[in-house]
């Protein structure tokens, strides 16, 4: 449904791009051009004529039936409401608006029922040309969605919100537009704004609106070329072969300011530049404006150098008619000298960039928000200071179209930049993420793989997932799927994923994107995507559990990793299943001290996780879908680093804490194994041996371990002192998190026999009592989530450290040794006040001393 009320416009073209993604999935596509919505187009109730010829053959033109039978709903009424209610603020007509909207909603729903509509795309729906229809559409959406138990089935994109479209005319009144139906926080609708500016303004208008994101207009980035199809374009329109061709494709209405193009042409000709202006647009839309432009061309003496070429087919039209793309194939420069406050996006600029044609534009109100702020290069006319092209502007345009070296540099720069920001893939990714196809009936596991510039390793990782095995051979590929989350990669990560999916159609591989940088954000996006799809599984047994599985693009999973994890989850009915992790000894040949420190940590983990169940690690864990949803999914926390917010990297552990503290069980699957990439240790080794790995002072950061350092990685063994420091760093991080934390979160574990046997009855009882005291003491303190578990864990560790290490020596091995030395500030504290000062030490997050002492990352 287009609210533009035009046969072909930028709004309709964008609809086609979105609809194409649904057509590829097998949807039948119907388009209502909105003739019965906007009064100022003067097409109210007009039948369609040749409009279908301008659209792909898979689009069926349609419209809501019997709107002309709604009492009082006509062009005059819509025009009155716009002028009296919206613009002037007179609410006298509002009761009639509501009555008419109810009747219009009935007809919308009836039409959707007759067509069997399963998804609705609304383009430009919040433009208040017709608040009666907008009100009716919201009513219809809620009725139809409830009747058919639909979830999010409406894709609603606003191209021209009130503050962006012709504000200078006063046509839509003043912000905050009290009579205009505002976007609703509906379970059935996801809204899209064209850019961050529009998103911010929308949220100012409707605080708390949740289901909204940015989806820019997109374009097919392929250079437009002169070929057999369009070779005669210049000849057919009488354009001399050697003349520079200026292209303007637009609606011929006053707001578009085609008069500026005529003045520019006159200036170029005066400078001796042989040029022709081609104006592509419907000359009948505004006959007075067309006549004015012809007269102006005569007055300026350029009439013979102007071609009014009529309406061309849309940019990507598959038909035989000449299209905008054919014009751009021959053009030397695209022009967009529009009114300052008229355009919100400026599609012609995007289409020129996509075609490999330089452009010149006015610096209209949102130009910088859409293009200029991203670094595109073009001559720009400052229309706040100069209404018509200046001599300097004409000179800059002349230089661009006559200096081919500069012309090529600008074209190449803009084309490459545009593909990243406005590539057609962005539509497909938005559709796939927000309106995903249902999961297969037999699919039980979704493997989520966050990736950022992993082109060098990704194919091997995907192959390892494809080649998973079960008890009788290759694992049934209908049992699982892979969700690759591209987190702003600048290499071939996305292309490799697509090629792999095409080459292996027996395995479902989905590619989605996450714009906010950070593995935590990417993992959350992938798991949320999988939850949404899994709930649409056909013929699903309500007792059948579905699992979300985290994997890491720089680690290698064993062939039976997924099956063993799945089996452990099915048999234990736990909420989370965690894998075993290991390093390969050959990677540490010649470094026995380092290998010893690593192995002691891994041996401790095997013992502790066998007793307590462990905690999830992003390298490989599974969570049952409903448990994931029950705790609110993965939560991304933020910290301030160097004056800026950064997302916290321990989302896997923090998520496990949420699950465990909510009363759910965690199962350890020791036969589900993942090999850790040794570069993780090599990259952070210098920080490990100085006790500062993964950041300090409360900030958890991880440098990009894929980037090769200028100096070669350290391959020599640790000195005895360095080995001791590395081990102490690792065990100080391990013990509070893996031995203390489980019983702190779930004190009932201290009643279970395996846990009592591990600690010993006396220590288990004293831990239980002390945990009760600390939990009661801290119950009203508002700790931020990132630190909520650290303070009590650190306190318990310091109070019971000697006994805890005695347990580790007994259960893991004597080589575990004694606890690392106390922090210097605690060494001289009187014994009777030790627990008191431990509390101050651990709660002093201003200094971060406790955080730095205990470390950050469980490095080994």
TrEMBL record:
Keyword Manganese applies: no
Glycosyltransferase 2-like domain boundaries: 446-621
Keywords: Transferase
GO MF annotation: an example: glycosyltransferase activity
InterPro entries noted in UniProt: Glyco_trans_1, Glyco_trans_2-like, Glycosyltransf_2, Nucleotide-diphossugar_trans
Domain Glycosyl transferase family, chain residue ranges per copy: 233-366
Pfam family, one: Glycos_transf_1
Name by which UniProt lists this protein: Glycosyl transferase, family 2
Species whose genome carries this gene: Actinokineospora spheciospongiae
């Amino acid at each position: 449904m287009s609210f533009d009320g035009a046969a072909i416009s930028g709004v309709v073209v964008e609809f086609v791009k979105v609809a194409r993604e649904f057509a590829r999935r097998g949807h039948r596509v119907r388009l209502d051009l909105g003739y019965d919505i906007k009064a100022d187009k003067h097409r109210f109730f007009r039948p369609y004529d040749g409009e279908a010829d301008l659209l792909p053959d898979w689009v069926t033109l349609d419209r809501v039936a019997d709107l002309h039978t709604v009492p009082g709903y006509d062009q005059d009424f819509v025009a009155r409401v716009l002028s009296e209610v919206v613009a002037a603020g007179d609410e006298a007509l509002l009761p009639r608006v509501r009555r008419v909207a109810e009747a219009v909603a009935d007809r919308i729903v009836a039409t959707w029922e007759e067509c069997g509509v399963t998804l609705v795309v609304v383009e430009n729906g919040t433009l208040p040309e017709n608040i009666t229809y907008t009100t009716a559409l919201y009513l219809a959406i809620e009725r139809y969605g409830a009747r058919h138990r639909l979830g999010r089935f409406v894709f609603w994109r606003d191209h021209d919100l009130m503050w962006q479209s012709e504000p200078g005319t006063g046509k839509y009144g003043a912000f905050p537009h009290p009579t205009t139906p505002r976007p609703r926080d509906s379970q059935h609708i996801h809204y899209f704004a064209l850019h961050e500016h529009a998103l911010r303004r929308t949220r100012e208008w409707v605080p708390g609106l949740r289901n909204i994101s940015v989806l820019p207009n997109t374009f097919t980035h392929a250079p437009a070329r002169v070929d057999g199809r369009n070779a005669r374009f210049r000849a057919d329109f009488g354009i001399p072969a050697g003349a520079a061709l200026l292209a303007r494709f637009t609606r011929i209405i006053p707001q578009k300011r085609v008069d500026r193009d005529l003045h520019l042409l006159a200036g170029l000709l005066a400078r001796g530049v042989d040029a022709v202006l081609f104006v592509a647009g419907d000359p009948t839309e505004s006959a007075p404006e067309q006549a004015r432009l012809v007269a102006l061309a005569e007055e300026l003496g350029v009439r013979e150098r102007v071609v009014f070429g009529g309406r061309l087919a849309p940019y990507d039209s598959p038909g035989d008619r000449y299209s905008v793309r054919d014009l751009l194939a021959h053009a030397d420069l695209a022009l967009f000298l529009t009114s300052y406050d008229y355009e919100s996006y400026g599609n012609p600029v995007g289409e020129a960039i996509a075609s490999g044609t330089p452009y010149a534009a006015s610096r209209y109100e949102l130009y910088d928000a859409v293009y200029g702020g991203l670094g595109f290069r073009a001559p720009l006319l400052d229309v706040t200071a100069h209404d018509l092209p200046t001599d300097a502007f004409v000179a800059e345009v002349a230089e661009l179209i006559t200096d081919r070296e500069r012309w090529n540099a600008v074209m190449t720069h803009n084309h490459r930049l545009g593909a990243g920001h406005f590539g057609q893939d962005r539509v497909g990714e938005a559709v796939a993420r927000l309106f995903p196809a249902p999961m297969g009936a037999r699919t039980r596991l979704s493997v989520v793989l966050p990736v950022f510039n992993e082109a060098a390793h990704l194919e091997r990782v995907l192959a390892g997932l494809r080649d998973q095995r079960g008890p009788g051979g290759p694992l049934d590929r209908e049992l699982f799927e892979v969700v690759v989350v591209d987190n702003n990669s600048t290499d071939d990560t996305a292309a490799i994923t697509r090629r792999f999916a095409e080459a292996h159609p027996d395995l479902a591989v989905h590619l989605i994107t996450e714009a906010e940088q950070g593995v935590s954000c990417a993992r959350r996006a992938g798991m949320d995507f999988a939850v949404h799809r899994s709930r649409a599984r056909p013929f699903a047994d309500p007792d059948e559990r579905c699992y979300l599985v985290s994997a890491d693009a720089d680690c290698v999973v064993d062939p039976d990793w997924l099956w063993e994890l799945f089996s452990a989850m099915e048999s234990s009915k736990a909420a989370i299943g965690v894998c075993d992790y290991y390093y390969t000894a050959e990677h540490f040949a010649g470094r026995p001290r380092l290998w010893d420190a690593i192995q002691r940590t891994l041996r401790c983990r095997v013992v502790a996780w066998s007793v307590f169940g462990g905690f999830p690690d992003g390298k490989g864990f599974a969570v049952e879908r409903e448990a994931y949803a029950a705790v609110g999914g993965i939560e991304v926390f933020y910290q301030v680093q160097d004056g800026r917010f950064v997302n916290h990297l321990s989302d896997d552990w923090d998520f496990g804490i949420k699950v465990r503290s909510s009363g759910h069980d965690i199962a350890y699957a020791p036969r589900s194994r993942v090999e850790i990439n040794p570069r993780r240790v090599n990259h952070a080794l210098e920080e490990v041996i100085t006790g500062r790995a993964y950041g300090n002072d409360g900030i958890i950061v991880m440098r990009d371990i894929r980037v090769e350092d200028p100096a070669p990685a350290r391959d020599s063994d640790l000195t005895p002192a360095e080995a001791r420091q590395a081990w102490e760093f690792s065990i100080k991080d391990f013990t509070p998190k893996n031995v203390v934390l489980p019983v702190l979160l779930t004190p009932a574990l201290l009643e279970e026999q395996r846990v009592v046997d591990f600690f010993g009855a006396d220590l288990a009882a004293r831990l239980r009592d002390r945990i009760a005291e600390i939990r009661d003491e801290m119950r009203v303190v508002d700790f931020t989530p990132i630190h909520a578990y650290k303070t009590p864990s650190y306190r318990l560790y310091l109070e019971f450290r000697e006994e805890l290490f005695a347990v580790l020596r007994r259960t893991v091995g004597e080589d575990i040794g004694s606890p690392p030395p106390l922090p210097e500030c605690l060494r001289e504290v009187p014994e009777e006040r030790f627990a008191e000062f431990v509390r101050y030490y651990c709660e002093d997050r201003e200094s971060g001393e406790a955080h730095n002492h205990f470390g950050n990352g469980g490095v080994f």
